[in-house]
Predict the 3D structure of the following.
Amino acid sequence: DVKVTQSSRYLVKRTGEKVFLECVQDMDHENMFWYRQDPGLGLRLIYFSYDVKMKEKGDIPEGYSVSREKKERFSLILESASTNQTSMYLCASVRRGRYNEQFFGPGTRLTVL
Amino acid sequence: AQSVTQLDSQVPVFEEAPVELRCNYSSSVSVYLFWYVQYPNQGLQLLLKYLSGSTLVESINGFEAEFNKSQTSFHLRKPSVHISDTAEYFCAVSDNAGGTSYGKLTFGQGTILTVHP
């Protein structure tokens, strides 16, 4: 079974802190994604990566950056956390190809105070 | 660009009743369609998908969805729901461009299905 893990289930940070969210997948998938999930808005794509050191902006990249130094690991970075970044963050991975079935981690619920 | 609209944000039903969760999409190209489910405090899991072929697709736990190209819809149905079906359901679409694909999905807003005893 594909396994996608995220470093924390719950995280509380203060405004202005630098925050790292880590995601690891164990199925050698090429593509990885970071979403944020908010009630009534569904999942919105923040960034995705299609190879090591390669990244592209999603729909809402402002205030975020990412890092992919190894194929299995994709990190989301909040350079200076703000209260409007309080949300559920979901990581996903997929094998490159036509069928696009994404596998998701359990999510990190981030609260910025 | 693609978009997905889930027409109901919340659907309350009684156990053993039928349910339909509605999903409409728009796209200028051919698409793949998915339904994902998110149980409380968990990540998303794939429920079923339409790639090609038969327009009616089924999941292992009794859900089915029908791809209707003329109405650009992919509604999810179950003839008799259980308490354990209580969850949030997301419809998603991706284009089926050939060759290398980034696997990007566009999600709807989600529908919270609550099954009451």
Remarks:
- The longest strand of chain B covers residues 87-95.
- The CA atoms of residues 4 and 17 of chain B lie 26 Å apart.
- The mean pLDDT of chain B is 90.
- The two ends of chain B are 41 Å apart (CA to CA).
